[in-house]
Amino acid sequence: MTNQLLRFTTAGSVDDGKSTLIGRLLYDSKSIFEDQLEAVEASSAKKGFDYVDLSLLTDGLKSEREQGITIDVAYRYFATPKRKFIIADTPGHIQYTRNMVTGASTANLALILIDARKGLVEQTFRHSFIASLLKIPHIIVCVNKMDLVDYDEAVYEKIVEEYKGFSSRLEVSDIQFVPISALAGDNVVNRSENMTWYEGATLLHMLESVHIESDHNHIDSRFPVQYVVRPHSKEYHDFRGYAGRVAGGIFRPGDDVVVMPSGFSSKIKTIEFGNEKLEEAFAPMSVTITLEDEIDISRGDIIAKPNNHPKADQDIDLMICWMNQRPVNLNTKFYLRHTTREVKAVLKEIQYKLDINSLEKLDNAEQLQMNDIARIKLRTAQPLLFDSYRKNRITGSVILVDEGTNETVAAGMIV
Amino acid sequence: MQDKLNQDVTIEPGVEMSQYYLSHLKELESEAIYVIREVVAQFENPALLFSGGKDSIVLAYLSRKAFHPAKIPFPLVHIDTGHNFPETMEYRDWLVNELGVRLVVGSVQESIDKGRAKEETGWNASRNALQTVTLLDTIEKNKFDAAMGGARRDEEKARAKERFFSHRDEFGQWDPKNQRPELWNLFNGKKHQGEHFRVFPISNWTEMDVWQYIHMENIPIPKLYYSHEREVIVRDGAILSTSPWLKLKPDEVPTKKIVRFRTCGDMPITGAVESDADTIEKIIAEVAASRKTERGTRADDKRSETAMEDRKKSGYF
Ligand SMILES: Nc1nc2c(ncn2[C@@H]2O[C@H](COP(=O)(O)OP(=O)(O)O)[C@@H](O)[C@H]2O)c(=O)[nH]1
What we know:
The complex is a heterodimer.
Chain A: E1 4-11, H1 18-28, H2 34-46, H3 62-67, E2 74-79, E3 83-89, H4 97-105, E4 109-115, H5 122-133, E5 138-144, H6 153-167, E6 174-179, H7 203-209, E7 222-229, E8 241-245, E9 250-251, E10 256-260, E11 265-273, E12 276-277, E13 281-282, E14 286-291, E15 302-304, E16 311-322, E17 328-329, E18 333-338, E19 341-355, E20 360-362, E21 367-368, E22 373-386, E23 397-402, E24 408-414
Helix pairs in contact in A: 4-5
Chain B: E1 9-10, H1 15-18, H2 24-42, E2 46-49, H3 54-67, E3 76-80, H4 86-99, E4 103-107, H5 108-113, H6 131-141, E5 146-148, E6 165-168, E7 196-199, H7 207-217, E8 228-235, E9 238-241, E10 255-261, E11 271-274, H8 280-289, H9 307-313
Parallel strand pairs in B: 2-3, 2-5, 3-4, 5-7
Antiparallel strand pairs in B: 6-7, 8-9, 8-10, 9-11, 10-11
The structure holds guanosine-5'-diphosphate.
C-alpha cells in the first residue's frame, strides 16, 4: 500500500502507435477488465480486423470515435505491484499543442514515440521541446514499430544518436531510450526475443524504477494559504488554522516563518491534518498550519522562511502557451491565477515568439495565435509572490483567464 | 463503528516520511483535499452530492479532514430516487448526524408528481435517468454554484476526459469539446450568472484506491457492501434484489443467495455479485482478482456503448 504515484504523458504524431502502446501497457499489466476487453474484441471484429485492436481500449468520446482521432486529454490508470500510474493521454495532432501542454503540466515523465520507419519528425521536436518547456523531469523515447524494420539495431541506434544530438539543446537531464513494438509487445512489459542486442530495461521496468523522489522542491519552503479555518465553536473558540498544500521545502513545528506579503514573522505552533498532529510537512502534502502569533493572514498569502522567501514583483517575465482560438494583442487584460491568488494582469510586451520546430526566436510579434509559444512581460495589479518555474513548478506557474468569457486562455511559466 | 477521526493521534515521522515522498494513497488524499478546499474558497454556495455509495462516502470523509476542527462548510445533497436500499438511507442519516452537516434532499418522486419527469415503464425501468431532472432542479432551487461528486475517471470512457472543475452551462449541460484546459493545480472556477460547476475531487482515484483508502482510514461503510444473504432473482445474467419496485416476470422465482453489492444505486437495477467477502480485506482481495468493472454490474450503462456520455451531456452526474 505504500507504492508511489507516477504521472506520465504520452506524445507522438498521429499513427505512431500511442493508443496501441497505452492499450498494450494496460493489457500486459492486466489492468483491463473482462467486459472492456469483450467490448474491444467485438468492435475489432465489427471492423473486420483479424487481431484485437488494443488502441480501441483508449478510444474516447463518441464524436472522436466518429472522426477517428483523439481530440482532448484523457486520463488512464494502471498499477503494478511497484507503482500506480496515471497516464495523461494527449493527441499527436499538430494543432493541439495546448493539449500536450495541459497533459505535461502535471507529469513527472513524458513518453515520446517515434516510428522506427520515419525517424525524427517535426512533431518529435515539438513534443520534446514542450516537455522541456514544462520541465518534465524525465523523458523516455520509445522507438516503436521495430517489427516493421526487422528489429534492426542499426535503425534504432541511428535514431538514438540523432535524438541525442538534438536534445542536447533542451533542458531535460534524464532521457532514456527503448526499442519497442507496441503491436507485438516487444520490450513494453515483456523482454523482446527479437532484439537480443538490446541490453537495457523494458519500458515498464523504466516506468517502475525512474527516480521521482526529487521531482518536488524540498529545499525552498513555500506554503500558499488556501483557506483560513475558523471553527467558531466553543471547543475551538480561538482556533485559527491556515489550510493549504505545501508547494516546496519542509515545515516543522517550531520553525521561524515569515508571512508574505505582509512580512510579519512568527513561529509554527502546530501542523495538523484531520486530528493528527504532524512532525513535518513537505510538498505535496495538504495540511493546516497554526502559528504562535495572531496575525492577519488570508488566502493568497505565502508562508515561507525568513532567509528564503519568494520574490514579490508586479512585472513578470514569462514563457506562455496561448491556448485560445481568439488571438491576443498587446495591452489585453486578464485575470491571472497563481498558487491560491488571483490578480488582474495586462500583456505589456511580446518579446519574441518561438518557432518550436527550429527553436528560432521570432521578433516583432504583435499578436499571439492559438498554440503559439512566446516570451512575454505582464504587469499585475498587485505584486505576485513567485519563484522561477525552473526552481518550483508550483510557485512558478500561472494561468490566464479571459475577462469576458472566463475561459482559460494561456498557460505561463515564470522565467 | 471505529473511526480514526475520533482518536487523537500523533504520527511519528516514519521511514516513508523521512524520505520525503508520499505513498500513492496519501498523494491522492492530499490532492482531493486541495480540490475540496479550492471549491470552498472559489464558490459561494457549494454542495456535496451524496449518493450513499462508497465514493461519496470517501468524499464526505475527506471533506471532514479538510476543514477539521471546523465543521464541513457545505451541505450534503441526496438525490432520492425513492428506490433506495434501506441500508443506504440508514447509513445516510447516521453519517449526517456524525458529521453534523446539513442534508438537502431532492426527491425524484416529487419531480414525477409535479410532471417534471416521466416514470419509465417496462421490465428494466429505472429512475436513474430521471435523477438528472431532480438534480438540476435541486441545484437551481438551492442556488448551488458548485456541486461536488465522487465520480472517478477510471469508471467509464466518457469520464476519462472529465476535468476536476467541470463547467456546466445554464442548462446544466456538459460540452466535451469545449472544456477549459486544466493546468497544474490551478483551477478556474469563474462563471457567468446561472452557470455552475461540477467538481470531482477524487477524479484520479481508481476503485482499488477507494477501497484501500477505506481500509487505511477505517471508514465505516453501508452493510450492503459486505457479503450477506438476500432474496434475489437472476435476470439477463444480473443478480437483482427483490424489492417493492422490482416487477417479477411470470417465470421468475426469488431465491436466497450470499451476495454483496459493488455499487449502491437505484435498487431495482443495481446488480449484486455472489461473494463471501465480509471484511474490507476480503473485498480488496476480491476487487484485485475481479475481471469485471464495477459499472459492468449496472444495467443502465449497458443500454448502449455511449450511454454514459449521452447522460453526462444532458446533466447527469
Ligand atoms: N506493425 C506495427 N504496427 C503498429 C505498432 N504500433 C501501432 N501500430 C499500428 O499503427 C497504427 C496506428 O496506431 P495507433 O495506436 O492508433 O496510433 P496513434 O494515432 O499514435 O494512437 C495502427 O494500425 C496500429 O495497429 C507496432 O509496434 N508495429
